[in-house]
Each structure stands twice: as C-alpha cells, then as structure tokens.
C-alpha cells in the first residue's frame, strides 16, 4: 500500500473558511509594494500539526524561542546570584 | 473533530507571559545594579529579553488573528475594551505629573522667589519650536484619520501614503524635541521647574516613540495585506493611542509651556 505521508498532501479544509475571503476584499489592482501572501500564510498557520502558534513556523520559531528562554532563565539565575551578593553586609 | 461552541478565543499555551515577567525582573534588578554598582549587564539582558518577548508575543497575536481567524467580533470587542482601559490608565499616569506641576507652580515657595517660572529660570518661548510641534502633532492626527478612511474605503495606495506621512510627522516631532532638549538653557536638575518639565515632557516623548513604533508596525501590516476594509483593529488601536499622545501634548503645551512661562 505504500507509506502514508505524515502530513496529508492535500490541503486540509480551512478551519475558518471565510478568512480567505477577507484578504481578497482589497482590489489587487496593481503590484504596489508586493504581492498578497496572506492566503498562503493562512494555509500554513492552519495546518493541523498540533504545534502551538509560537512554534508553528518550525525552525526559525524554535531558534527564537530557545534564545529567549536562554536569556530569561539564565538571566534570572544571574539576577538571583547578584541580588544575593548585593544583600551581603559589607564589612568596613 | 470537536469545535468550540462559543465565539471566544482559547489561546494555545504560550511561554511569553512568564518570560515577560522574568524580563521585568531582570530589567528592574538591572536598574539597581546600574545605579548602585555601575554594572549594566543585567539591565542589557533585561531590555533585550523584554524586546524579544514583545516581538514574539505580538507576532503570535498577528498569527492568531490574520492567519488563523480567531478574532471574532466578540474577541475584537474584548480587545477594544482592553485598549480603552489601557489608555485610560496611561491618562492617570500623566495626571500624576500634571498634579506635581500644579502643586509646585500654583503656590511657588520663597525658595523659588515666590514666582513661577522660578527666579533664574529662562523658560522656552512657547511660540517657537513648541508651537511648531503642536502643529506637527495636530497634522499627524489629520493624516492618521485620512489613513483610516482610506482603509475603510479599500484604497491601499492612499492608506499607505497617509500612514507613512503620519509616521514621518511623528519622527519630525521627536527630532525637534530632541534638539530642544539639547539646546534648553535649563536641565532636569534645575529645581522643581526642571524636574516637572523634563519628567512630564520626557514621558510624553517616550510615548510618541512608542506610538510611532506601533504605527510603523501597522504600516508594515498594511503593505502586507493584513487589514481589510471592515477588520483592522490593530490599526484602530494604534490610531487611538496616537490621538491620546496628541491630546497629552496639547495639555502639556497649554499648561507647562504656555501658562507656565
């Protein structure tokens, strides 16, 4: 029967089917400052892959998330150490 | 697959609130380390993580609304209430500084020479750059309204032009204020006049920068087709904020700049 792909190759029905209509309300008369990529992004972000919205785009999202986590958690530990040291009485 | 039976938005689990709280801890502790121990590493860490959290949190809101369609009219109503309440809280914030100004200027103490402006203070001429700044902000209020009308009429090119003009006027104001700050004959340390002047106008200037940034993000989203003629609350929120900044300036101008000279 062959291996079934993990992600269905046919695009799943958009959960909010009307959203595609919204973006095309504006007249796409000229290519003034770029093409409308919103429908493609809508498809991307509505994929039923179980990913939360902050990681939905994959690798770039993961990198940013991990960087932010490293800075905040690492910073909090550094902060607690610095506050502990600052709270020690200074001997004259 | 089960679908929700209500029109509210149950958000995906997100790390940004707790990371934001941590960033606030780092920023405040960083200020302490900078003030008292002359060390700026923690402060820089704090500001950097704050910016990262803000960028990602708001990016996610754009994803949830424009790309995933979660912002139903009910959700939008909640966002409107939220923005109004936030702006109201900012109004109270400025009210405090106006109170401080009037406390000192309505009954000037003998130490000030029993007069306002105090003895020795040469206030800025309200009919020079401050008047120009007033005209700039009023004009920017017109252009942002023009942008809004263009969006509701579906006129993308005009909306882009009007919003760009608004942002440029905002930058012009900031540049002129910066120059005024540099050239002013008095400083923040010059008694209660300097303190009230620079703290009130300084916080206002910060809000102009925040408002200009908000409008710039809206311009980017406008160009990327995120807004529709009937659904563009992000822009409306930015426009409300901008009008608020304009109104605060008008109060500042009339009280501190004009009456206070």
Sum up the structure in keywords:
heterodimer, A: 92 residues, mainly alpha, 3 helices, 45% helix, B: 261 residues, Helix Hairpins, Four Helix Bundle (Hemerythrin (Met), subunit A), 2 domains, 75% helix, 0% strand, Cyt_c_oxidase_su3-like_sf (chain B), Cyt_c_oxidase_su3_a-hlx (chain B), translocase (chain B), cytochrome-c oxidase activity (chain B)
Note down, in words, how this protein is organized.
The complex is a heterodimer of chains A (92) and B (261). Chain A is an all-alpha fold and 92 residues long. Chain A is built from three helices and no strands. About 27% of the residues of chain A have low confidence. Chain B is an all-alpha fold and 261 residues long. Chain B has two domains: 70 residues, Orthogonal Bundle (Helix Hairpins); 186 residues, Four Helix Bundle (Hemerythrin (Met), subunit A) (Up-down Bundle). Chain B is 75% helix and 0% strand. Chain B has seven helices and no strands. In chain B, helix 3 runs antiparallel to helix 6. The longest helix of chain B is centred in the middle third of the chain and has 34 residues. The radius of gyration of chain B is 22 Å and the shape is globular. The mean pLDDT of chain B is 96. Chain A: Keywords: Membrane, Mitochondrion, Mitochondrion inner membrane, Transit peptide, Transmembrane, Transmembrane helix. Chain A: Its main location: mitochondrion. Chain A: Pfam families: COX7a. Chain A: Belongs to the cytochrome c oxidase VIIa family. Chain A: It is a single-pass membrane protein.
Short précis:
Chain A is mainly α and 92 residues long. In chain A, 45% of the residues lie in helices and 0% in strands. Chain A contains three helices and no strands.
Give the tally of β-strands of chain A: 0
Profile the largest sheet of chain A: none
**General shape of chain A:** elongated
| H/E series of chain B | HHHHHHH
Radius of gyration of chain A: 24 Å
Structural class of chain A: mainly alpha
Which chains make the largest contact? A-B, 40 and 46 residues
- Helix percent of chain A reads 40-55%
Q: Report the principal-axis shape of chain B.
A: globular
Classified by CATH, the class of the largest domain in chain B is Mainly Alpha
Low-confidence stretches of chain B: none
By DSSP, the count of extended strands of chain B is: 0
Mean pLDDT of chain A: 76
Q: Taking Cα atoms only, what radius of gyration of chain B do you get, to the nearest Å?
A: 22 Å
Q: Summarize the biggest pleated sheet of chain B.
A: none
Remind me, CATH topology of the largest domain in chain B?
Four Helix Bundle (Hemerythrin (Met), subunit A)
Report the structural category of chain B.
mainly alpha
Which oligomeric form is depicted? Answer: heterodimer
| Beta strand % of chain B | under 5%
Give the termini separation of chain A. Answer: 82 Å
Organism (chain B): Podiceps cristatus (Great crested grebe)
Main location (chain B): mitochondrion
Pfam families (chain B): COX3 (PF00510)
GO molecular function, one term (chain B): cytochrome-c oxidase activity
């Amino acid at each position: 029967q062959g291996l079934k792909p993990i992600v269905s190759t046919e695009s799943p029905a958009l959960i909010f089917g009307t959203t595609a209509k919204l973006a095309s309300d504006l007249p796409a008369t000229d290519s003034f400052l770029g093409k409308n990529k919103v429908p493609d992004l809508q498809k991307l972000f509505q994929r039923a892959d179980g990913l939360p919205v902050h990681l939905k785009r994959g690798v770039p999202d993961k990198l940013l998330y991990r960087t932010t986590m490293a800075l905040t958690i690492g910073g909090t530990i550094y902060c607690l150490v610095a506050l502990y040291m600052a709270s020690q009485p200074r001997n004259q | 697959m089960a679908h929700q039976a209500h029109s509210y938005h149950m958000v995906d689990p997100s790390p940004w609130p707790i990371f934001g709280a941590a960033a606030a801890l780092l920023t405040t502790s960083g200020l302490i380390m900078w003030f008292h121990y002359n060390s700026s590493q923690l402060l820089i860490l704090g500001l950097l993580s704050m910016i990262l959290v803000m960028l990602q949190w708001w990016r996610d809101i754009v994803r949830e609304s424009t790309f995933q369609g979660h912002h139903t009219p009910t959700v939008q109503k909640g966002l409107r209430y939220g923005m109004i309440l936030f702006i109201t809280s900012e109004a109270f914030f400025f009210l405090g500084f106006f109170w401080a100004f009037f406390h000192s200027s309505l009954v000037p103490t003998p130490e000030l020479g029993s007069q306002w402006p105090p003895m020795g203070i040469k206030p800025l001429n309200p009919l020079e750059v401050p008047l120009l700044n007033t005209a700039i902000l009023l004009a920017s209020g017109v252009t942002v309204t023009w942008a809004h009308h263009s969006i509701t009429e579906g006129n993308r090119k005009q909306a882009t032009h009007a919003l760009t003009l608004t942002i440029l006027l905002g930058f012009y104001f900031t540049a002129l204020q910066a120059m005024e700050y540099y050239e002013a004959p008095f400083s923040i340390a010059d008694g209660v006049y300097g303190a009230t002047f620079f703290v009130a106008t300084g916080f206002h200037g910060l809000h102009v920068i925040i408002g200009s940034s908000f409008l710039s993000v809206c311009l980017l989203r406008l160009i990327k087709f995120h807004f529709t003629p009937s659904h563009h609350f992000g822009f409306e929120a930015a426009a409300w904020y901008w009008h608020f900044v304009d109104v605060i300036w008008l109060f500042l101008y009339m009280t501190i700049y004009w009456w206070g000279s």
